[in-house]
Design a protein that fits this description.
Blueprint: E1 16-21, E2 24-32, E3 36-40, E4 62-66, H1 84-97, E5 102-108, H2 110-121, E6 126-130, H3 139-153, H4 156-165, H5 169-177, H6 185-195, H7 198-210, H8 214-218, E7 227-232, H9 240-249, E8 254-258, H10 265-268, H11 270-283
Parallel strand pairs: 3-4, 3-5, 5-6, 6-7, 7-8
Antiparallel strand pairs: 1-2, 2-4
């Protein structure tokens, strides 16, 4: 595996490193000081998605950003390990190999589900989910969406076609707009960089095809780690009701609703999102 080149405009590029932990070559960024805080992006994202939130965390935590397998600038080592359980296990193995000891994990969208799965496997002070993807598709979509992802993921050249089709600024704008969020030009340029990477698109499709959430959802009543779920009312990808329904099944989970933003609320306003996160982390004793 040869590490990919990190673009010059990538957020926190000076903190980037590549770490080998079977089966992947992980892209990792570490900054700040204090207890370890692990951040996990959502499907189709990468470390850049935390650019607005990280500056509000580094004075109290050593913040660890990791690109998921094959996404962003992590090199995929095993295409069969892009599902929820596999990624959670491989992230834990990475943490152990690097002597990381996260007191809490923050996950966005599908990253929140991975964080909750990791909380089942290792002790954590708490979990924060931002517009957490903790719901299954209903009806026909519940069958059609995974089935289409499997077909796309099984045909590698389709990822290249998809990447080319959405490699224009106009198409990238449409994709981000479909989440209900509005991003600054630099953030849009970084998403365009990802859309032009066929290996990133291929890994995202593989993650979609292998995604199985039912077992985790069935175990929500047994979750023991304190959990904060942050929602945004303009989110067109994961409506706030999903987080409220999940919280109702968990013991003591909190929900904070932030009005006026979409699915990528942490990219739109890091300061607004940081406030309830830091208050939560202080309440659960995660701050040293």
């Amino acid at each position: 595996m040869r590490p990919p080149v990190i673009p010059a405009d990538w957020p926190f590029r000076d903190h980037s490193q590549h770490v080998r932990s079977a089966p992947h070559l992980w892209h990792v960024q570490i900054m700040g000081s204090g207890p370890d805080l692990l951040l996990i992006h959502g499907a189709g994202g990468a470390s850049h998605s935390w650019r607005r939130l990280v500056p509000h965390l580094t004075s109290q935590f050593r913040v660890i950003l990791v690109d998921l397998p094959g996404q962003g600038f992590t090199v995929l080592g095993n295409r069969g390990r892009c599902g929820l359980d596999a990624m959670a296990s491989d992230l834990l193995a990475l943490a152990q190999s690097q002597n990381w000891h996260p007191v809490a994990i923050i996950g966005h969208s599908a990253g929140a589900a991975i964080a909750l799965r990791m909380a089942e496997l290792t002790p954590l002070r708490g979990v924060v989910g931002i517009n957490a993807a903790l719901g299954e598709f209903d009806g026909l979509a519940g069958w059609l969406y995974p089935a289409m992802a499997k077909i796309l993921a099984a045909t590698p050249f389709l990822a290249q076609l998809f990447s080319r089709a959405f490699a224009s600024p106009a198409q990238a704008d449409k994709l981000i707009a479909s989440t209900g969020s509005t991003l600054e030009p630099a953030g849009m340029a970084q998403y365009l960089t990802l859309l032009r990477k066929s290996d990133h698109v291929d890994a995202t499709l593989a993650m979609m095809a292998q995604w199985r959430l039912a077992a985790l959802l069935s175990r929500l009543p047994g979750q023991t780690a304190p959990c904060l779920l942050i929602t945004s009312d303009l989110d067109r990808a994961v409506p706030p009701v999903i987080s409220h329904q999940a919280a109702a099944q968990m013991n003591g989970a909190e929900v904070v609703d932030i009005p006026g933003f979409g699915h990528l609320v942490h990219e739109e306003s890091g300061e607004i999102v940081a406030t309830p996160i830091l208050e939560f982390l202080a309440r659960i004793g995660a701050v040293s």
